[in-house]
């Protein structure tokens, strides 16, 4: 049994837990054992909470034995990107600057997961402060891609992507300011959703850009993301950006089909705006065929060129990030890694009027998108323009037409966007597709993601870490 | 495009970083300078207010 537990989805494991076919203690032991055996190859965890996790698992087991099953996350082992505050446990942002930062309280989302009975296995690697890039000059090494450890995970939720893909936890929390959930989800071949802005609390998460930061789950499947979203989506008066709206029935939407769904394809993103690998485009076309065959209608739509979203997003997020880090950049710049230091310092050069005008432009983009989405229910385009790139290369340093991801548009406009694996390259690396929707229709994008995962059958293929190790050694 | 030497722009902001990184930072800043070209320019006042400062009534 132990051999197979790490291949269960949250949906499968929670069903087995509720039926007493597997216990939280068994499950947690299996994952801790797997972390001990394999994580040295991919560096996804920077802190493993072995004793705490086992204690939580024993409590969960006793509660369930007493008939107090809390729901589908009860007894499920997860991990947290190390920008999520955990009471009494270091929350470092993967930075020497915060090496000794021990918060007094859990982030709101961490509290919600704890209350739902999830087991926290530990804190996961991240790009420094969720911006710094895949760095080799930080106190902990960068996460590596379990499909091939010579490759990058992308980021910034690098450890979250790697750990879920490698079967070292069943779900993980990431954050997404410019694509930091969807990028690593794409390169690591898992599902990850950037929810609607305000749907999940950011209280207690180390901030980067207050108007573009999003918390969100990363899991092997879109259905598992829906399960986590059901627990996480709650109004939080302690987060001024939190939306006071009823949470959708995320899981109830799963499996309800796509008959009549109106799908808009943002074809200019990948045919004109960014040079995209033909394998990525072929997988996308195959996904569209599946949707068409199931009764969805497909049409092309036109948005602003992707570079406009990139420009507006950069001006806003760099300015806001600099505001957060200005004091430390001036007083202790040596405590940052080189990537983090210069990416954060760049925000010092955005003039106030340009920031304000970027916000004005952002509002126009939001209005333009809302108009387009009167005629379609979801938008589809790739997540990444290609497969994972070699670790150690700065994938973000290329020209605008060779940016690796199509993510920024939905940080700027705020609606939900999920990345799923829609196939594999000839080299056996995951390909990715993004489904975006209207604000607060997160359940719809997850439903479409789940439908495609099932129809395409991509969730049956897992990375084999021993193979990845061999590939890296070559 | 900004004509002021980059080293002066950096110093004016009270920032310093290793010399080897300055070129990389300057490239990032050039990219941001290009980005500003997209958001600058005339806008009709009739479009305002597109962005809002929003308050909600205090709970009673």
List the SSEs and their pairings.
The complex is a heterodimer of chains A (474) and B (60).
Chain A: H1 2-5, H2 10-18, H3 24-42, E1 45-48, H4 50-65, E2 77-81, H5 108-115, E3 119-124, H6 158-165, E4 171-175, H7 182-188, E5 191-194, E6 215-219, H8 222-232, H9 250-253, E7 262-265, H10 267-273, H11 278-293, E8 297-300, H12 306-331, H13 338-345, H14 352-372, E9 378-381, H15 408-413, E10 417-424, E11 430-437, H16 442-456, H17 465-473
Parallel strand pairs in A: 2-3, 2-4, 7-8, 7-9
Antiparallel strand pairs in A: 1-3, 4-6, 5-6, 5-10, 9-11, 10-11
Helix pairs in contact in A: 3-4, 6-7, 8-16, 12-13, 12-14
Chain B: H1 6-12, H2 19-39
Write up what this structure looks like:
The complex is a heterodimer of chains A (474) and B (60). Chain A has 474 residues and is α/β, with parallel strands linked by helices. Chain A folds into 2 domains: 424 residues, Amidase signature (AS) domain (Amidase signature (AS) enzymes, Alpha-Beta Complex); 48 residues, no CATH class. Chain A is built from 17 helices and 11 strands. Chain A is globular and about 55 Å long. The two termini of chain A are 33 Å apart. With 60 residues, chain B is an all-alpha fold. Chain B has a domain of 33 residues. Helices cover 47% and strands 0% of the residues of chain B. The mean pLDDT of chain B is 85. At the A-B interface, helix 12, helix 13 and helix 14 of A face helix 2 of B.
């Amino acid at each position: 049994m132990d051999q197979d537990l790490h291949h269960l989805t949250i949906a499968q494991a929670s069903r087995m837990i509720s039926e007493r076919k597997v216990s939280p203690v068994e499950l947690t032991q299996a994952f801790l054992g797997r972390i001990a055996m394999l994580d040295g190859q991919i560096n996804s965890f920077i802190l493993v909470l072995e004793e705490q996790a086992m204690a939580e698992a024993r409590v969960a087991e006793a509660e369930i034995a007493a008939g107090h099953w809390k729901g589908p996350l009860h007894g499920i082992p997860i991990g947290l990107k190390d920008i999520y505050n955990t009471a009494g446990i270091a929350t470092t942002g993967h930075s020497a600057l915060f090496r000794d930062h021990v918060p007094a309280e859990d982030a709101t989302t961490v509290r919600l997961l704890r209350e739902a009975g999830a087991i926290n296995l530990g804190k996961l690697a991240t790009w420094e402060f969720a911006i710094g890039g895949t760095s080799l000059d930080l106190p902990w090494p960068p996460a590596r891609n379990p499909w091939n450890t010579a490759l990058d995970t992308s980021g910034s939720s690098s450890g979250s992507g790697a750990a879920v893909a490698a079967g070292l936890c069943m779900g993980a929390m990431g954050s997404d300011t410019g694509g930091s959930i969807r990028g690593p989800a794409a390169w690591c071949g898992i599902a990850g959703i950037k929810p609607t802005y305000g749907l999940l609390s950011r209280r207690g998460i180390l901030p980067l850009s207050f108007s573009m930061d999003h918390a969100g789950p990363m899991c092997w499947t879109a259905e598992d993301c829906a399960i986590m979203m059901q627990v996480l989506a709650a109004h939080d008066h302690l987060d001024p950006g939190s939306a006071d709206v009823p949470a959708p029935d995320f899981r109830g939407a799963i499996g309800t089909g796509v008959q009549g769904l109106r799908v808009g394809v943002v074809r200019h993103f990948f045919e004109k705006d960014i040079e995209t690998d033909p394998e990525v485009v072929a997988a996308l076309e195959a996904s569209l065929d599946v949707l068409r065959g199931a009764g969805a209608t497909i049409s092309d739509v036109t948005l602003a060129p992707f570079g406009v979203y990139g420009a507006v997003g950069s001006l806003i997020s760099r300015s806001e990030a600099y505001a957060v880090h200005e004091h430390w950049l001036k007083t202790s710049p040596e405590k940052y890694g080189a990537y983090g230091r210069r990416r954060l310092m760049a925000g010092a050069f955005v003039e106030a009027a340009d920031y304000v005008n970027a916000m004005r432009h952002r509002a126009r983009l939001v209005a333009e998108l809302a108009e387009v989405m009167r005629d379609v229910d979801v938008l589809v385009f790739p997540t990444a323009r290609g497969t994972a790139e070699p670790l150690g290369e700065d994938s973000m340093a290329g020209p605008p037409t060779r940016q690796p991801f199509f993510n920024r548009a939905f940080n700027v406009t705020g609606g939900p966007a999920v990345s799923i694996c829609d196939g594999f390259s000839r080299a056996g690396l995951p390909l990715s597709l993004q489904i975006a929707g209207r604000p607060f229709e997160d359940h719809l994008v997850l439903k479409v993601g789940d439908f495609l995962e099932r129809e395409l059958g991509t969730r049956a293929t897992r990375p084999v870490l021993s193979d990845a190790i061999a590939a890296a050694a070559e | 495009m900004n004509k002021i030497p980059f080293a002066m722009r950096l110093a004016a902001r009270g920032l310093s970083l290793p010399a080897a990184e300055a070129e990389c930072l300057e490239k990032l800043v050039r990219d941001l300078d290009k980005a500003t070209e997209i958001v600058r320019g005339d806008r009709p006042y009739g479009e305002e207010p597109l962005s809002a400062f929003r308050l909600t009534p205090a709970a009673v």
